[in-house]
Amino acid sequence: MQSRFQSDRRLTVRMVVTLFLLGLLYVAFVAVLIALLKSWVLVVVLAAALLVAQYWFSDRVALYAMHGRIVEREEYPDLHGVIDRLCAQADMPKPVVAVSDIDMPNAFATGRNPDHAVICVTTGLLRRLEPAELEGVLAHELSHVAHKDVAVITVASFLGVLAGLMVRFAFYSQLFRGRRDQNTLVVLATIMGVSAAVYAISFLLIRALSRYRELAADRAAAHLTGRPSALASALTKVSGDIARIPTKDLRTAQAFNAFYFTPALGAEPGLSRLFSTHPSLEQRLEQLGRISAELGEAAMPGKAG
């Protein structure tokens, strides 16, 4: 079912291209592993099982990692009310609503499709935002579900996870065999080298897609709510508060940056900005400023009439 969120063909093209390139990389990676390990059944079964598990249980894994729990309307009536209104406005199924009892202000969406999605907000976010700001953040997260880019990011990130697991598997399987001749060392070094290359390529592809999908979600949320200034205010407030949290306290959350409304990054700019999962705050605010001007110009003739 097509929601009323503003469609984005450029986002769709980017998702298709990213999945295609990662698919080619995935096939090549598995082929190399089969040639090196000489056990295609083990490699294929393990790879397929991990892919299915990550796709099918991604929502549960993310909730568990962020200490999120599903909440009913009786416990958080205002939160449910905002999501109900936005889903009715967007003509999309209502996702499961969850809350994470942590002070870091943030939100994320996860799930394999709009019928099996979860929207999770932190108590830190609920405490800090005004109702209009919270509506903007939730509309942003719902747009990820409507655009189906949550599922794409989940599948896309699988290859990097598999590469890391295969390095560990190859290392420990050879380590505990006790004997490591020259051929074994060559195989082990090759697996590690190929895995590192696969991880690096998938890392860059995912980051490029992730930055664009955040801009697309901001645009869609701004047009759905008609209040880009409220979303801009939420972005400024959340980014400022996260920047004041010590980096050591953010490390656990950083593994899920690709899913967050705002990345869990400290105040240090560094080279990490070049590989960020999100565009800069300045880029996001500049885009919302343009949309605000466009909506204001479009509304003026109506008022005059």
Automatic annotation (TrEMBL):
Active site: residue positions: 141
Gene Ontology molecular functions: metalloendopeptidase activity; zinc ion binding
Recorded coiled-coil stretches: none
Domain Peptidase M48: 77-289
An example Gene Ontology biological process: proteolysis
Cofactors that this protein relies on: Zn(2+)
Listed transmembrane segments: 12-34, 40-57, 150-172, 184-206
Family annotation (InterPro entries): HtpX_protease, Pept_M48_protease_HtpX, Peptidase_M48
Cofactor remark: Binds 1 zinc ion per subunit.
Enzyme Commission no: 3.4.24.-
A cellular-component GO term for this protein: plasma membrane
Membrane topology: Multi-pass membrane protein
Main localization (coarse): membrane
Amino acids binding Zn(2+): 140, 144, 214
Keywords linked to the UniProt accession: Cell membrane, Hydrolase, Membrane, Metal-binding, Metalloprotease, Protease, Transmembrane, Transmembrane helix, Zinc
Subcellular location: Cell membrane
Homology family: Belongs to the peptidase M48B family.
NCBIfam families: PRK02391.1
Listed name of the protein: Protease HtpX homolog
Protein species of origin: Streptomyces shenzhenensis
